[in-house]
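Consider the subject:
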Amino acid sequence: MTDRKSSAKTASRVRSAPTATSSLGSLTQPGARVDVTCRACSSTRVTHIAMELTDGSAVEFVFCLNCEHRSWEHDGDIVDVDVVIAKTRRVR
């Protein structure tokens, strides 16, 4: 009985290695940042997050640390935040 419990605990701790499709950026290492600028003020001090939404759409979120402008983009085009929220809803 104890062997079964310990093997169940071990099995639950096993995780697959994450797969990166693009290089990860860094907020603290300038050389590691992705070449993205703010659409409002052209600052390079931005947080850039690429993700896949629930419906499979690939989007990028950009937040400017200089002017606090936020934008969602898909294939270089601006996407309204309401559209992003709608695409993240799960259909029940």
